[in-house]
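Anyone up for a design puzzle?
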């Protein structure tokens, strides 16, 4: 997993407790704001536009 997402030290620190807490935080978050932020950050990367014609 460290090859794709994390540095070696970070991958070693990832355990089921940390992963569970991260999922708890994700489900407790404002999903609308999270999705909006995701779309706005990746739209330029995809060379797409959010403006309707």
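Challenge accepted. My sequence:
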């Amino acid at each position: 997993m460290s090859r794709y997402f994390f540095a070696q030290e970070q991958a070693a620190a990832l355990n089921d407790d940390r992963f569970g807490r991260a999922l708890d935080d994700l489900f407790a978050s404002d999903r609308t704001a999270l999705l909006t932020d995701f779309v706005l950050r990746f739209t330029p990367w995809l060379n797409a536009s959010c403006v309707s014609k």
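A detail worth pointing out: The chain has a mean pLDDT of 79.
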